[in-house]
Amino acid sequence: MMGMWLNSFLFFLFFCIFKMFYDKCNAMVLEADVTVQGLNTANETGVPIMAHPPAIYSDNTLQQWLETVLASSLKGIKLDFKSLKAVGPSLDLLRQLTEAGRVRRPVWVNADILRGPNGSSSVSVLCRFLTLVQEKYPEATLSPGWTTLYVPLFPNSTYTQAMVEKMQELVGALPQRVTFPVRAVMVRAAWPHFSWLLGQSERYSLTLWQGASDPVSVDDLLYIRDNTAAHQVYYDLFEPVLSQFKDLASRGRAIRRGKSWVE
């Protein structure tokens, strides 16, 4: 009982903080991790909830989150699906809200559909995820990614040409805009592959994301920025990397000399 009360209080607190600060945030898109209540247990309900694995219970449903966002912000929405079971009912909910005229903003839908560097081999959602989006909410921007693992101070592999070619095979014929989520700490070493991928379609972009403990290099981010058009890359980064990158990037396209960046 105490846990249920605490979840409700935390959602109320989130709502209050969100109302106070969303308009001061520079983020273009607000993200929600989505699974279903009681996933793979006898208590599974099929109701989409806000939770990140291993959590499978929450008082905070996706519907509550969407209601809050739609009432309080004009920012885009990104749903990061942690379970294939959450995709269908979540897209149905989005369809209802859209047909009611309430969703007038970009919507991104994300799922890891291929094995990536050091990643899990248990990915089995690729075809069904893409099919559900085509059937239920084709106006969304697709964000299909690779499972990854990065361990600091240990040898880590990076993305390969075979990985990006497989992704191109899966999404190349689809009509949607596609932004590929790429782990930022690994992108520089694999840049020839992602440069190739971006060249396959005007619909493509990258979203460079940072794991909580990933030692992302600002020099690497600036390199990517200097080798792409502005509309081809989005950034999902923690502080202080984000501020450091924005500060240097705001000075204009840079030329690298040694370890310093100058205009």
From TrEMBL:
Its main location: membrane. One of its GO terms (cellular component) is extracellular space. Residues 1-27 form the signal peptide. Belongs to the menorin family. This is Protein FAM151A. The keyword Endoplasmic reticulum does not apply. Keywords: Membrane, Signal, Transmembrane, Transmembrane helix. It comes from Sciurus vulgaris. InterPro entries: Menorin_dom. It is a single-pass membrane protein. It is found in: Membrane.
